[in-house]
Amino acid sequence: MDELDRRIVNALQGGFPICERPFAAAAEGLGTDEATLIARLRAMREEGVLSRFGPLFKAEGLGGAVTLAAMAVPEERFEGVAALVNAHPEVAHNYARDHQWLNMWFVLATEDEARVGATIRAIEAETGLPVLNMPREAEYHVGLRLEA
Amino acid sequence: MDAADRSIVRATQGGLPLEPRPYHAVAAAVGLEPAEVMGRMERMLAEGAIRRIGAVPNHYALGYRANGMAVWDVDDARVDALGARIAALGLSSHCYRRPRHPPHWPYNLFTMVHGRERAEALRAVEAIAAVLGPAARAHEVLFSTRILKKTGLRLAG
């Protein structure tokens, strides 16, 4: 990443315009041109610096339901349980986390509320382990942008 | 959200085409007029169905290896006011209230903190703790040690 890449990542984590030539419009504010901006974004996406470039949808806005769930998985069963959990297409993310007992944390994204409960019950039945459901009850607006 | 909106979501949830007229390319793919696609996306942005449009950086690729979930047990009467204040600090990427699972899990406020090193992420946790003061009875930081799956949220079909 060079200085222009950093400027692009820092400036374009939101506010990308909706117009006929949005890259040309965004490039102007960055002191570059449309072709260079597109080439830089393509390269950063290919290298994995960006996981994506485009709209970030709110799952609930799509009519779906999302929840955060946690499990206490015995160390010796960790890989097997991860495979069982990850096999569900409703599991969007799954992270191993440092904690004395709740060491597996995953996000379920489903088309409707009923599917959340059904998936949790299926995971509990398959693994024999309880799943703690921690749906979002309130969201507080954050201003953080990651600095490149 | 109607069928046309859904077709736009499906066409763009993996990203916008990186070409000079991306919304025109989306319009061609879904069989709508470009002005219709742009108008619908403006509306979804205004309504909050689209949170934002732009670059989604990979934390790890940017060198943010320490990603911690800081969880707090905050007085129910004060959690909403304090959650809003904590979010506004700009120290966390997400700030949510979630249900407690007593007795082992007393935490109701979740904040995600990031750093190149754990010490950097922990400095953000300290700054949050200072604002919460005695309203936070306990807290823990759960750092992620491994990504087991990451596919992102997708509208099926």
UniProtKB/TrEMBL annotation, chain A:
Alphabetical UniProt keywords: Lyase
Pathway: Porphyrin-containing compound metabolism
Domain Siroheme decarboxylase AsnC-like ligand binding: 67-140
Enzyme class: lyase
EC assignment: 4.1.1.111
Domain called Siroheme decarboxylase NirL-like HTH: residue spans: 5-50
InterPro entries in the record: AsnC_trans_reg2 (IPR040523), HTH-Siroheme_Decarb (IPR050684), NirdL-like_HTH (IPR053953), WH-like_DNA-bd_sf (IPR036388)
Protein name per the record: siroheme decarboxylase
Organism: Craurococcus roseus
UniProtKB/TrEMBL annotation, chain B:
Domain of life: Bacteria
Keywords: Lyase
Enzyme class: lyase
Family matches, as Gene3D superfamilies: 3.30.70.3460
Reaction(s) catalysed (UniProt annotation): siroheme + 2 H(+) = 12,18-didecarboxysiroheme + 2 CO2
Siroheme decarboxylase AsnC-like ligand binding domain span: 62-149
E.C. code: 4.1.1.111
Pfam family, one: AsnC_trans_reg2
UniProt pathway annotation: Porphyrin-containing compound metabolism
PANTHER family: SIROHEME DECARBOXYLASE NIRL SUBUNIT, TRANSCRIPTIONAL REGULATOR, ASNC FAMILY
Family: Belongs to the Ahb/Nir family.
Protein name: siroheme decarboxylase
